[in-house]
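Table S5 (text form). Sequence records supplied for joint modeling of the two-component complex.
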Amino acid sequence: MVSVPELRIQCLCIDSNDPDRLARFWEAALGWRRTYEEPDEVVLEPRAGSPEDGVSPDLLFLRVPEHKQVKNRLHLDLRPADQAREVERLVSLGARRSSVGQPPDAPWEVMADPEGNEFCVLPPLPGGDG
Amino acid sequence: MVSVPELRIQCLCIDSNDPDRLARFWEAALGWRRTYEEPDEVVLEPRAGSPEDGVSPDLLFLRVPEHKQVKNRLHLDLRPADQAREVERLVSLGARRSSVGQPPDAPWEVMADPEGNEFCVLPPLPGGDG
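The corresponding structure-token record, covering 260 residues in total, follows.
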């Protein structure tokens, strides 16, 4: 019998200079809900009743005094139904297009959230609906 | 009607100097499976048939030339059934206990993976089984 580790990913923690503001961006970006809120800590969870609810890692924004210095070693790739539309929507929410040296013809869009954390918006799944 | 963003988290990307080696650690740590493998890129997905399968973000290890320089802005919190046992197991897999200035009596254990990426092993859920 193969032993399965009794260890799961509970959350992805994101250091932040302003957890409330940064969480507000991701809340709108993903359509997630705020389930915990203190001045130094905000938790977002997937929509209640969605497949991700209680399964996918939560997002936890933690206040830190230091600012982002270098390109993050960890970043999220997001899968849209419509890449161009989502990129525009994310810009309207406070993200910006970014460059980390990706090829000019890369099919993914590199962006940065309001605190400069890089993330990518992938092309839609071929033939899929997101 | 509230509009739900058609945008989901596809994967968490982790810059790595040795994707094969780093993925091997996380594969064993979480009991996930390797579903894509190139010299510069390795993908891990949750166990087939697990609640996370096809729902939780995959882990994607990407080769980069630069080394880790500062504390990561993003890190994973892991939820164990037995904290002490999992910490020992993770050490045996190549992780180490780490310090990022956490309080000495913090109930979570700060660790670093074989490339120094910080993560935490939380206490078990009260009354829960992980």
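Note: Strands of chain A lie at 7-16, 33-38, 41-45, 58-63, 74-80, 96-97, 109-112, 118-121.
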